[in-house]
Amino acid sequence: xxxxxRSEKQTFFDxxxxxxxxxxxxxxxxxxxxRNLRELDKKVYPVELGGARYVEGxxxxxSVADLxxxxxxxxxELPRHKVLDVVKQVxxxxxxxxxxxxxxxxxEVLDFCEEQGIRVRHGGCAVMYxxxxxxxxxxxxxLVKLAGxx
Length: 150
Known about the structure:
Blueprint: H1 8-12, E1 17-22, H2 31-39, E2 43-48, E3 54-55, E4 58-59, E5 73-76, H3 80-92, E6 97-101, H4 107-116, E7 119-124, H5 127-130, H6 136-146
Parallel strand pairs: 1-2, 1-5, 5-6, 6-7
Antiparallel strand pairs: 3-4
Helix pairs in contact: 3-4
């Protein structure tokens, strides 16, 4: 029986440590992504640009540069106009794997990442790759698989 090849989006979540970046000044922190990664036994740090000191009871960091250690990958769920500054921090930290939530990408960000050698996964919802069980996101996952874009 042939093994089905996993997509680059799927293999992103094989990484062991992550920073999840959000900003509560614009929208709620991406707690589902953060919580799901913890439930998958990943090391995960919240980066809260809106100034909250804690996310899900864990200490939040004000920037990628302030993390206590280098992580394998960063997930960004921010308004598009806030993304490039964070991506520059990712590059300066030597992190080479990045997930940009739906709508976070821009030609400027993607060009910068290519110049810096950062592998970008974009145009998808991290929750549908990390959540177990049935939910809205599992329906979303089914539809994306059906469209061949998982």
